[in-house]
Amino acid sequence: MAGTTVQTVRMDLERPARLVAPDLLGAVLTVDGVGVRLTEVEAYEGESDPASHAWRGMTARNAVMFGRAGHLYVYLSYGIHSCVNVVCGVEGTASAVLLRAGEVVAGEGAVRDRRGPVPYRRLASGPGNLGSALGLTVADSGLALDGVRASLVAGEGGRVMCGPRVGISRAVDVPWRFWLADEPSVSVRRDGVAAAVPPTS
After folding, report:
1. Which residue has the higher pLDDT, 158 or 133?
2. Which of 27, 44, 58, 194 is packed most tightly, with the most Cβ within 10 A?
């Protein structure tokens, strides 16, 4: 059964990040028993995207992004926040989707041990908080979504919105941030447009 999950996830993820990203909304990422339903994501297109960690090519830090789809790329932001990405695209070409926010749907007790007494909607709101909720660190970069420790399962979405990415200094107007409308866990800047069809440029 786990093998079937791996193949399904990899097949769905072997597309450019900007196309995968909206499809991840509503999906449930589970790591070590903690499940988060994804409500906000951002696409990064590797060497063609000045805002991507892979823009200048492969390094020891970003090598996972150039690997097979269906793995997690975890990096440290500001020296403290573990930010989680789903690797997608074709092997050898960096492409990943940053997971910006979600709703905790399993393992809330473990999440509260990590996050403390914060409101439910904020348990996994914001990329650093989502990484903390899942208990992931940079040591988990490369973790496979194979059902052993981690899995990614499609779920109920909703009305998808899109707008510019946030927290970056390059390609700031590219509308590759996607989120579910009316979800309280969505982290920032809810101004956007309906995204029935993902932007292609």
Report:
1. 133
2. 44
